[in-house]
Amino acid sequence: MRDLVAVQDALRDAHPPGWRWTPGSLVAGCFAAPARGHAGPGAAGQPVWAGAAAYRGRRCVGRAARPARAGAGYAFGLLALRFGAVLQAVVAALPERPDVLLVDATGLDHPRRTGLARHLGAVLDVPTVGVTHRTLLARGDWPPDQRGATAPLWLDGELVGHWVRTRSGRRPVAAHAAWRTDAETAARVVLATAGHRTPAPLREARRLARQARAAAASAGYGATRYR
User: Fold this and answer.
1) Confidence (pLDDT) at 38
2) pTM metric for this prediction
3) What is the fold, at CATH topology level, of the domain defined by 2-14+23-218?
4) What's the mean pLDDT when you consider all of the chain?
5) Any idea where the domains of the chain sit in the sequence?
6) Helix (H), strand (E), coil (C) string for the chain
């Protein structure tokens, strides 16, 4: 745990070159689905299924899914211990390296400004954007109920992301600045890839992870028998 905090502190002070969204970029998403039936924060060694999907425009051009084990239980601000290695491996299994990666985690919205989305991007050397349904520490009012509307998310006076209304009549999602992306770029990538409320690459990654988990359960390798 102390090692991870030290890494997060070092990454907080890192200032890599910024990345800007351009149409035609290869956008991937990754998602980790823990085994069902576990209460509380979980623990190291529990089964996890990870999915990743890469899109160019509206077309999915690469998919990957794999079983793994959680590196730790959940602890506030230390999600990389639980899912970092799992997500790193499934993204590496994609047939092509993405230009930008969407992660179900925060980036600068973190006590040390190094949420899992930012940390994973640094490890993979890929620009990243965090996409979550809630913020971790950041605060900001929701945008108007109109697709494309955004509203800033602030943490201690720093702009760390935007609420993004990807569909009218639905809750906005939080687009987090992470590795080599700022808040404006994060919002732009989320809007450009969101056919539904959740951006397509992340939505497909989530489906793949849950599908793999369901297949394992059907085969008799559930939470208690997974090896």
Assistant:
1) 67
2) 0.94
3) archaeoglobus fulgidus dsm 4304 fold (3.30.2170)
4) 94
5) 2-14+23-218
6) CHHHHHHHHHHHCCCCCCCCCCCCCEEEEEEEEECCCCCCCCCCCCEEEEEEEEEECCEEEEEEEEEEECCCCCCCCCHHHHHHHHHHHHHHCCCCCCCEEEECCCCCCCCCCCCHHHHHHHHHCCCEEEEECCCCCCECCCCCCCCCCEEEEEECCEEEEEEECCCCCCCCEEEEECCCCCHHHHHHHHHHHCCCCCCHHHHHHHHHHHHHHHHHHHCCCCCCCCC
